[in-house]
């Protein structure tokens, strides 16, 4: 995504990332993870006890090697949908650029769930498409790893799903 020129339609398509993964665990157990702001700030494995604090309604996640990240809860609809604003750095005020991170938990026939994530709003991070496309590129690869980390974390701590007849 370096010196490539994109059409407006292509940029609109690149303004979001959508990924999903099947997880062999009940929706309630997956919910326990996704409701936690910034669970996806890690080195490839979900932290059981993250460094998480609140400054008003902003959750601040501190990772020893990755740094500090801020999130604001937008909506929680237990146990199916959660949405957060991933607030850029440096955090100044409400006008600090952010992306919207949305999670859906869909039960699968036969047990388990499909966890879907959509991160959108990259074009609002910078006026120059090259700058926000660079930010998006890291997250595009990152969501694949983070969903796999979620699967491992939830499945190792969850009872096996019950199979429906």
Automatic annotation (TrEMBL):
Protein name: Activator of Hsp90 ATPase homologue 1/2-like C-terminal domain-containing protein
Occurrences of domain Activator of Hsp90 ATPase homologue 1/2-like C-terminal (ranges): 24-124
Family the UniProt entry places it in: Belongs to the AHA1 family.
Domain of life: Bacteria
UniProt-listed Pfam families: AHSA1
